[in-house]
C-alpha cells in the first residue's frame, strides 16, 4: 500500500492560524486563496511534519501567537504524526499504539515528494541523474555516453581530415601522358659536370692571370716609388715578367666548351619528372583520402554500435512514464526537452520520477499552480487520478477549482475536497 495523507490539522505555523484539510485520496487537492494568506505555509508545515528538521522553517511559529506550532498529520496506513510543544517534539504513533520516530517516516516518504520544486528547478543533467539513479544504470550509461562522445569526436576529426585530403588531391595537377617512373638524368649530368669542371679550371687560370697582372702592376709601381728597394723590385719584376709571359701563353689557346645542349636535355628530363612527381603526389593524396574515408566509415559503424548499446540499456529498464527517455544527458518526454515541455508535462514528469524514487510514497506537494489554466489543471488532475497519486497543491485563486480557500490563516469556509468543476481531478462530484 502506498502512503497517502488522510487528514491535516495545523495551528500557528508560519501564516497559518488554524487549518484542517482532508485531501482527496487520488487526484489533485488545491489549496487556494489570495497572496500572503497561508497557502504555501500548508505545504511547508506538511514537509516539516513528515520530513523532519531539515524542512523546518526558519521562523516556524506564527507571528503574534503565544502558542507554539501544533502539527498533526494522519496517514492512510494508520500512522499519526504530530509535532507539538515548545520544542515541536516529534511523535509518530502506529495503529497498535506503538511509537516510532523520524526513521520510519524517512523510509515511507521520499524527500523529493516533499520538495518537487527542488527537482523541477534543478539543471537538466541533474534531472537525468536523478532518474538514472533510480533506474540503477547511471554509471553504465555514463560510460557509454563518454564512449559515444569519444567515438563521435574521433569520427568528426577523421571526417575533417578526409575532406581536407580529398580537396588537396582534387586540386593537384596531373599529367596522363607522363611516364609512371621518374626519368634518370645521371649520365647527362655527369657530362655536364665534367664540362663545368673544365670551364671552372679555365676560369681559375683567367683569375690567376689577372692576379699576376695586378701584382705586376703593383711591382712596377713599387719600382718607381721605392728606389731604396730597386734591386729587389727589379728581381721580382723580372720574375713576374717571366710568369706573365707564361700565363699569357697559357690563355692564348683556351676555348670554353658549351653545355647548352646538355642543359636543354636536362631541362627536358626535369620537365618530364615534374609531371611524374605531380602524378605520384596526386595518386598518394587520393589514396590517403580514400583511407581516411574508410576510417570515417569504420567510426560511423562503431558510433552506431555504441548508440545501439545505449538504446538497449535504456530499453532494459522500466521508465516511470511512457514517452520518457534520456538522450545526451537530458530527460526527454514525447520528443521534447524540459524547456519545451508544457507546464502540465513538466509536473507530470517530475511527479512520476519523484514517485519512482520511493514507490511507497503515494503523494506529492506542489506549489504555485496558478501558472496553469483550468484545462491544464484538469489534464494534470486526471493523470494523477489515473495513476492513483495524491497531490496537495497551492494556487493563487479563489475559484471553484480550489478544494479549500485559506484566508488570513484560516479555512475560509467548508468547501468540497476536490475540484468539482472537472471530474478528472479525482474524488467525488460536488453535491454528493
* Overall 3D shape: elongated
The CATH superfamily of the largest domain is: P-loop containing nucleotide triphosphate hydrolases
Overall CATH class of the largest domain: Alpha Beta
Mean pLDDT: 83
Distance between the termini: 27 Å
The total of beta strands comes to 14
Number of domains: 3
Q: How would a crystallographer describe the biggest sheet?
A: 6 strands, antiparallel
Overall radius of gyration? 49 Å
pLDDT < 50 runs, ≥5 residues? 414-432
CATH architecture of the largest domain: 3-Layer(aba) Sandwich
Written as H for each helix and E for each strand, in order along the chain, the element string is EEEHEEEEHHHHHHHEEEHEHEEE
Q: Can you summarize this structure?
A:
51% of the residues lie in helices and 16% in strands. It has ten helices and 14 strands. The strands form three sheets. A six-stranded antiparallel sheet has the order 2-1-4-5-6-7.
Summarize the SSE layout with pairings.
Elements lengths: L4 E9 L2 E6 L5 E7 L5 H13 L18 E6 L4 E5 L4 E5 L5 E2 L1 H7 L7 H6 L2 H12 L2 H34 L14 H40 L4 H23 L7 H56 L8 E4 L2 E4 L2 E2 L5 H15 L5 E4 L7 H14 L2 E7 L7 E4 L2 E2 L21
Parallel strand pairs: 3-12, 3-13, 11-12
Antiparallel strand pairs: 1-2, 1-4, 4-5, 5-6, 6-7, 8-9, 9-10, 13-14
Helix pairs in contact: 5-8, 6-7, 6-8, 9-10
Explain the overall architecture.
- A hairpin with a 2-residue loop joins β13 and β14.
- The protein starts with a strand and ends in a 21-residue tail after the last strand.
- The strands form 3 sheets. Strands 2-1-4-5-6-7 form a 6-stranded antiparallel beta sheet. It has a 5-stranded mixed beta sheet with strand order 11-12-3-13-14, with helices on both faces. A 3-stranded antiparallel beta sheet has the order 8-9-10, with helices on one face.
- With 432 residues, it is an alpha+beta fold.
- Helix content is 51%, strand content 16%.
- The model is unreliable at 414-432 (pLDDT under 50).
- It has 3 domains: 5-110 and 358-425, P-loop containing nucleotide triphosphate hydrolases (Rossmann fold), CATH 3.40.50.300; 141-175 and 279-315; 186-270.
- It is elongated.
- It has 10 helices and 14 strands.
- Keywords: Coiled coil.
- Residues 190-309 form a coiled coil.
- This is AAA family ATPase.
- Pfam families: AAA_23.
- It comes from Absicoccus intestinalis.
Amino acid at each position: 500500500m502506498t502512503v497517502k495523507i488522510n487528514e491535516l490539522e495545523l495551528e500557528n505555523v508560519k501564516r497559518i492560524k488554524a487549518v484542517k484539510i482532508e485531501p482527496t485520496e487520488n487526484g489533485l487537492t488545491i489549496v487556494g486563496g489570495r497572496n500572503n494568506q497561508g497557502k504555501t505555509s500548508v505545504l511547508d508545515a506538511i514537509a516539516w511534519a513528515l520530513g523532519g528538521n531539515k524542512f523546518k522553517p526558519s521562523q516556524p511559529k506564527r507571528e503574534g501567537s503565544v502558542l507554539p506550532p501544533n502539527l498533526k498529520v494522519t496517514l492512510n496506513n494508520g500512522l499519526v504524526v504530530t509535532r507539538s510543544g515548545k520544542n515541536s517534539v516529534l511523535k509518530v504513533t502506529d495503529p497498535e499504539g506503538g511509537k516510532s520516530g523520524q526513521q520510519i517516516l524517512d523510509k515511507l516518504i521520499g524527500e523529493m515528494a516533499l520538495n518537487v520544486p527542488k527537482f523541477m528547478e534543478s539543471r537538466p543533467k541533474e534531472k537525468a541523474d536523478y532518474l538514472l539513479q533510480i533506474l540503477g544504470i547511471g554509471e553504465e550509461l555514463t560510460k557509454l555516453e563518454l564512449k559515444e562522445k569519444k567515438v563521435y569526436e574521433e569520427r568528426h576529426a577523421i571526417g575533417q581530415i578526409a575532406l581536407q585530403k580529398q580537396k588537396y588531391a582534387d586540386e593537384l595537377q596531373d599529367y596522363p601522358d607522363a611516364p609512371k617512373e621518374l626519368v634518370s638524368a645521371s649520365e647527362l649530368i655527369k657530362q655536364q659536370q665534367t664540362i663545368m669542371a673544365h670551364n671552372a679550371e679555365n676560369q681559375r687560370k683567367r683569375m690567376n692571370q689577372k692576379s699576376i697582372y695586378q701584382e705586376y702592376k703593383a711591382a712596377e709601381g713599387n719600382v718607381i716609388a721605392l728606389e731604396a728597394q730597386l734591386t729587389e723590385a727589379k728581381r721580382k719584376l723580372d720574375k713576374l715578367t717571366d710568369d706573365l709571359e707564361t700565363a699569357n701563353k697559357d690563355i692564348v689557346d683556351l676555348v670554353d666548351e658549351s653545355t647548352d645542349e646538355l642543359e636543354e636535355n636536362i631541362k627536358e628530363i626535369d620537365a618530364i619528372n615534374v609531371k611524374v612527381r605531380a602524378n605520384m603526389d596526386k595518386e598518394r593524396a587520393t589514396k590517403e583520402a580514400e583511407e581516411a574515408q574508410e576510417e570515417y566509415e569504420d567510426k560511423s559503424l562503431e558510433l552506431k554500435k555504441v548508440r545501439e548499446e545505449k538504446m538497449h540499456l535504456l530499453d532494459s529498464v522500466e521508465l516511470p512514464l511512457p514517452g520518457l527517455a534520456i538522450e545526451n544527458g537530458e530527460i526527454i518526454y514525447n520528443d521534447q526537452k524540459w524547456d519545451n515541455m508544457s507546464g502540465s508535462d513538466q509536473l507530470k514528469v517530475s511527479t512520476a520520477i519523484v514517485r519512482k524514487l520511493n514507490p511507497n510514497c503515494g503523494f506529492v506537494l506542489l506549489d504555485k499552480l496558478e501558472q496553469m489554466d483550468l484545462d491544464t489543471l484538469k489534464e494534470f488532475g486526471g493523470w494523477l487520478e489515473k495513476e492513483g497519486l495524491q497531490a496537495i497543491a497551492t494556487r493563487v485563486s479563489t475559484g471553484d477549482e480550489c478544494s479549500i480557500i485559506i484566508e488570513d490563516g484560516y479555512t475560509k469556509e467548508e468547501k468540497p475536497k476536490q475540484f468539482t468543476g472537472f471530474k478528472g481531478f479525482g474524488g467525488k462530484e460536488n453535491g454528493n
